[in-house]
Description:
With 147 residues, the protein is an alpha+beta fold. It has one domain. Helices cover 48% and strands 13% of the residues. It contains five helices and four strands. Strands 1-2-4-3 form a four-stranded antiparallel beta sheet.
Amino acid sequence: xxxxxxxxxxxxxxxRQALLExxxxxxxxxxxxxxxxxxxxxxxxxxxxxxxxxVVRDHDKAHRALTEAGLAAAVxxxxxxxxxPRRVWMQLSAHPSPQDGLPGLCAQVREALAPFHLDLxxxxxxxxxxxxxxxxxxxxxxxxxxx
Length: 147
C-alpha cells in the first residue's frame, strides 16, 4: 500500500541518520556529552544521548585496541544506534587475512580488548567463540576493573 507520506518518511529517516552522524562526529571532535545532550534537548532524552555517546566511546576504544593489536581488518564493528538497546556489535569480517589465524582469533581479540576493560559476550548467553567464528554478531561489553 502506498502512503502519501512515504517521501517525508524517507526524508526524516535520512535526516535522523545524518543527525546521528553529526552527533558522533562532534563527540569524537571533543564536544562534551553534556553540551551535546543540552543541544539535543527536545529531540532525544539526556540519558539516551549519554548512553549513545558511551557506546560510541566504547566502540572507539575497541577500535583502538584492535588497531594496536593488528586485528582491525579481521573484525567489523557496528553501533546499533541511539534507540535502546544501544550496543556495539562485533563480528568476524568476511575475509580475514590468513595471518589473523582464524582458530585463535577470538582469543586474540579478547586479549586485545582486556586492557581497555572490554570483552565479548554472545547474545542470550551463548558460546562467544562459536558465534564469533560463525561470523555471527557478538556484543562488546564493559568489564569492571579488578580492585
